[in-house]
Amino acid sequence: MSIERDYLMRQMMQLFQVLRKILGLREDGEIEEARSQVRYFYRILNINTDIQKLSIEELLHLLQEEKKFSNEQIELFAFVLKEQGEMADEETLRLDYFRKAWFLLDKVDKESISFSIERQMKLQELNAYLN
Q: What predicted TM-score, i.e. pTM, was given to this entire model?
């Protein structure tokens, strides 16, 4: 059991590091490199599906039922979706990423027993984009 827990902890740390790199690259205007890191993030999670083509329900099914992601993994996934929305060239694509990110974060927030300021800030930021 501890081997599995150690593996999950290492994977979470790796995902968090990639997320920080994506954010930094995007903020520095290095959009293509940030997009490359997004693809790397998906490879780490072994996700070969085109996320933008999935409905919110299909995405949730993929993450929960097929991949068996924890809420922590889903939260990091939602943060990456938000970053993808920030980098999207088309407004409809941007809003689609933001909707998916908001839905996943809201789900995690409702199910979580711990309060997260960062999650609340992301939800408020996404609400501002969507309204």
A: 0.89
What radius of gyration do the chain's Cα atoms show? 14
Distance between CA atoms of 96 and 84, rounded to whole angstroms? 10
CB atoms within 10 A of CB 73: 18
Q: What confidence tens digit (pLDDT) does each residue in 27-75 have? A: 999 999 999 999 999 998 889 889 999 999 999 999 999 999 989 899 9
Structure tokens at 37: 């890191």
Q: Which amino acid is it at 27?
A: E
Q: How many residues does the chain have?
A: 131
Place of tokens 């790199």: 21
Beta carbons of 71 and 63 less than 8 angstroms apart:
no
